[in-house]
DNA sequence: GTTGAGCGTT
């Protein structure tokens, strides 16, 4: 059978790329994803109904519509709320741009879209929970199974040379980083977490927290119990139970809206009424509750948009309080981004794997023998949705800082949840 | 018993 190709494009009216089909006339999703990283399916506009239709997908195989692939242009589907690439900053698919926004961006700067496909810079990742005995060679050996490792460090006490129990690792490629961030790691007999270090994290929007506080917990509630219970509302990416027992817990969802929807509720878990409320930022200074407005980005809750449901026009509306016109908005965005250093690095709230430690038997005096207490609540969490900002305005830079000075204060305050 | 551990001598 002669080679057959179907035409695939990222948007309906964009130039299509020809993608080869298999001998049986199907097209492999992996073939599509090879050209459009992050793709999860295809759709097309039905010539009859004029509606978009999904292409049947089963087991990674895309099946032609009834009358064959024809000459239609198939449009790539990306995971919901995703601009079309996997973001190893979070190990998931954030990028909170609406399709509208994305299109605009592409018009403005086609090359920036390219940056987002695969060529991202990696970042150092902090490795928490290392056994004291783990050496840099150990780290390198372990992490090399994920990809090319270009840097490892074990942080040690300057005087004694003893490990501080954490280190850093950096990969060449973004995909490796993504993989590593989304799972826990058994290193020399201990479960370790890899995350973006604080220094690489941007601010977060309090109204968009994915984490809730669960008050009035009882001691018999394991993190597994909580995970199981809260799963009914949406994907749970993290459960944290402080040790020793303190009658509360934190539950993080993949979706901020789920979290928000539960706040204020009294829920019954194992026959006990627990109270759900907003998770306050860790280490927030004296501020409390009502002060929370200070923790935003300074431009209103949704100004730079987050994961869900932002219409492309609403962000302007949110600026009305500040009398900002679109130019100033762009400037503000540039200023914010440049102040975070790494362009395109998305801020992060609560990472996925972290609090498995609540079940790991670790404590301030870490038990290095570590045959953890067995409440292994971890089903290798599926990563966190992060806060996102557009990635391409950053070059304008620092000159704007002074004009937005007061707003910028908020950037480093708390919410590194 | 209602707010979480640890974050880089550059």
From TrEMBL:
PROSITE patterns listed in its UniProt record: RRM
Gene Ontology CC: one annotated term: chromatin
InterPro entries membership: Nucleotide-bd_a/b_plait_sf, RBD_domain_sf, RRM_dom, TDP-43_C, TDP-43_N
Highest rank taxon of the organism: Eukaryota
Cited CDD domains: NTD_TDP-43, RRM1_TDP43, RRM2_TDP43
Upper classification of the organism: Eukaryota, Metazoa, Chordata, Craniata, Vertebrata
GO terms for MF: double-stranded DNA binding; RNA binding
Major localization class: mitochondrion
All residue ranges annotated as the RRM domain in the record: 123-219, 210-281
Region (Disordered): 352-375, 396-417
Assigned keywords, A-Z: DNA-binding, Mitochondrion, mRNA processing, mRNA splicing, Nucleus, Repeat, Repressor, RNA-binding, Transcription, Transcription regulation
UniProt name for this protein: TAR DNA-binding protein 43
Entry-linked PANTHER family: RNA-BINDING (RRM/RBD/RNP MOTIFS) FAMILY PROTEIN, TAR DNA-BINDING PROTEIN 43
GO biological process: mRNA processing; regulation of gene expression; RNA splicing
Places the protein is found: Mitochondrion; Nucleus
Organism: Ictalurus punctatus
